[in-house]
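#help-structures

NK: newbie question. if I give both the sequence and a SMILES, will the prediction place the ligand too? trying with zinc ion
OV: yes, paste both and it writes out the complex. here, I ran yours:
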Amino acid sequence: MEIRTLQSQIAATFGARDRARGSDGTFRRLVEEVGEVAKALRARDPAALVLEISDLVAWTFSIAVLHGIDVDDALARYHRGCPRCGASPCRCAVDPPGEGAF
Ligand SMILES: [Zn+2]
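OV: that's the protein plus ligand as structure tokens.
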């Protein structure tokens, strides 16, 4: 599914609820999903991780919709590689130990 199509579907499905909940409440839900992703990672549960990643992305789209951000346009900065160094693969300094590793 194209990113713009998915964003339109998220807006149609959850836009009214997200507007009623507001930006702060919707952002809290997004943060809760980050915790769910962490739980799935700690549990080494690939099926749960798939579900939680999809929820996390959906809540991110909800925030984007609330703020009029076109996610496809926003992600364009990644289309040619790393937005910082411009390379693919990234040539930025390696993350400190414990960071950035999956
Ligand atoms: Zn880089």
